[in-house]
Write a structure and sequence with these properties.
The longest helix is centred in the last third of the chain and has 14 residues. It contains 2 helices and 19 strands. By secondary structure, it is mainly beta. A hairpin with a 3-residue loop joins strand 16 and strand 17. Strands 5, 8, 9, 11, 15, 16, 17 and 19 form an 8-stranded antiparallel β-sheet that branches. Strands 1-2-3-4 form a 4-stranded mixed β-sheet. Helices cover about 10% and strands about 30% of the residues. The chain folds into 2 domains: about 45 residues, no CATH class; about 230 residues, Jelly Rolls.
Length: about 300
């Protein structure tokens, strides 16, 4: 099968005008076209369009790519070797096409998972008063939680080795940073409360009391655990907030709220979970992708 040619609206019209359109030939509509990402086929003097399940790879060189996901080109600058379990990206709110994003300021009933895994972790909230809000600031897109908002997804129990990367903030220093919640009271993967950062072991591992005042600006965090149960939380790249051995299981269930009445108060830009300990090269690819995508992030330290 030959490669499908990329065309825009004017090029599509020109094919007909110049008598170059041939029955059965397929084309992929470029970004910016009226039906961007759709396959169009010329058939007996008319164009037939097939639903836009595809997005032209040339338009997504700045996106995170991985096998099985929304963007899969191994030649893209930000390609990682492991497909995540779930990937919530406010820039592609429905998990399939950024063209479907709502207007800034509208409530979010569904935040789509763009990972492409067999299990769909789309996060939903049917109650209007508990729905967060989609917002746009310059090139940045994010979902805002007011301290009473959250969205639920299918429960997922973190394996021994996992990597989680989060881009988010709190509205004020006094509020909670709790982007992802579990199914059990008092259990967290990452929580900032009262200036203290907690990890997998809860109150037994309140090991950082310094970074909390900085959570009110856009920040990138990694929460990781390797096959030896070594749990780390990093900030702005490879800067370690703490490192502790933790065997505790965690079943994550929602965005924006713990199981007990602790809520996230602030914004979540992106959250990705891998069921493995990523390679150093992959971690740095993710760092580069986020640094390129979010202009307000502080410089990210490389992993080594």
């Amino acid at each position: 099968m030959s490669d499908i040619t990329l065309i825009n609206d004017s090029e599509q019209s020109s094919l007909v005008t110049n008598g170059l359109a041939k029955n059965g030939e397929m084309y992929l509509k470029k970004a910016g076209s009226t039906d961007a990402g759709s396959i169009v086929v010329y058939d007996s003097g008319a164009w037939k369009s097939f639903a836009n399940e595809y997005v032209a790879p040339s338009a997504n060189n700045n996106e995170l790519h991985y096998s099985g996901g929304l963007f899969t080109s191994a030649a893209a600058p930000y390609y990682v070797s492991a497909q995540p379990i779930m990937h919530f990206d406010a820039a592609i709110l429905d998990g399939s096409n950024s063209a479907n994003n709502p207007s800034s300021g509208l409530a979010v009933s569904t935040w789509g998972d763009r990972s492409g895994q067999a299990t769909n972790y789309d996060a939903t909230q049917a109650t209007g008063s508990a729905q967060p809000t989609f917002n746009v600031s310059g090139d940045d897109k994010y979902v805002s939680f007011d301290g009473g908002d959250f969205v639920d997804f299918t429960d997922y129990t973190l394996p021994t080795a996992f990597n989680m990367v989060i881009v988010g903030n709190t509205n004020t220093d006094a509020n909670h940073f709790l982007p992802i919640g579990t199914d059990t009271n008092g259990q967290y993967v990452i929580l900032e409360f009262g200036g203290t950062t907690y990890g997998l072991k809860g109150t037994a591992s309140a090991v950082d009391n310094t970074y909390g005042p900085n959570y009110n600006s856009i920040t990138q965090f990694w929460a990781t655990r390797d096959s030896n149960n070594l749990h780390n939380i990093y900030v702005q790249g490879a800067n370690s907030l703490f490192s502790v051995t933790a065997t505790n299981t965690r079943t994550v269930s929602r965005l924006g709220k713990g199981n007990n009445a602790y809520y996230h108060t602030g914004d979540i830009y992106e959250l990705i979970i891998w069921a493995s300990d990523l390679s150093t090269a992959d971690k740095n690819k993710v760092n580069s992708y986020l640094a390129n995508k979010y202009s307000s992030l502080q410089p990210l330290t490389s992993f080594s």
